[in-house]
């Protein structure tokens, strides 16, 4: 267990549904504790605290500013609408609060650069809330993709993330409101698709992006469903589809010259309560091992990866470890901001391609 001196004290700004999961994760992480929450009104903040059984010691505020002014808050978690990120993340950094920011990180890369600049100028740690990156399964999958003997050279990635919460969601949720989350499905779940693609290709950015025809928008111009292809000069290719209009899908498929890897629940493991997540892989090197050389497909191997904790707890723990290192005189780790920025760059290019009538758009790295 972490000592009191290394425990990171969290404040939460915004009482969105995802904040419930982070409250639990902070309580379970050995190096973190929740000390404050804030909402736009005291009534909403008090209700959130009561509904979720937060300890009485957690201070409840009726404004975001009060959380940032709290001298005992080391770091803030922000599950705010995307359009509010740049204002409040910059303000948090200027108050010397470390920033754990929900994805997508900003409406565009220019806004995100303001956030990164504020974090660097004030010496605070940044990380976004892409939880699946902290799951031990993710590292095990990377080992499979890196196995040249079994997998060969990675050629193609396809990701499909979708869910359909029904008419109420499509009418009233903040993710379909142009003034709050104008990126819609592209920002909320396309972010996962793009990050997964970049992760598989070792964060080598594509040179161009082409949005696929068929984007669906609501009356406010918010994307409800879209897809795109990503292209690299050496012939590598990736495609993705994200939608608020289809049945639930959290799929990733990676195809190599010798093998294939499939994952059906990469955002949140379906078996997370059982302490493990699974993925499947198959390789040409397995042909003939069963004694039946007539099979045209070798059959898939299921890999179950044990985990001592849920991925959101591991994320909080890693973020708190980095914050603790800064508190002890170290420098913030910049890699998480770099990965978020690359994902934002590709997302911006997809949006640009849609707005240009499905024209090819170059990914500008500057």
UniProtKB/TrEMBL annotation:
Source superkingdom: Eukaryota
Any matching Pfam family? GFO_IDH_MocA_C3
Q: Name one GO molecular function term.
A: nucleotide binding
Gfo/Idh/MocA-like oxidoreductase N-terminal domain location, by residue? Answer: 8-127
InterPro entries found in the cross-reference section: Gfo/Idh/MocA-like_OxRdtase_N, GFO_IDH_MocA-like_dom, NAD(P)-bd_dom_sf
- Enumerate the spans annotated as GFO/IDH/MocA-like oxidoreductase domain: 139-261
Q: What does the sequence similarity comment in the record state about its family? A: Belongs to the Gfo/Idh/MocA family.
Task: List the protein's name.
Answer: Gfo/Idh/MocA-like oxidoreductase N-terminal domain-containing protein
Task: Name its species.
Answer: Acacia crassicarpa (northern wattle)
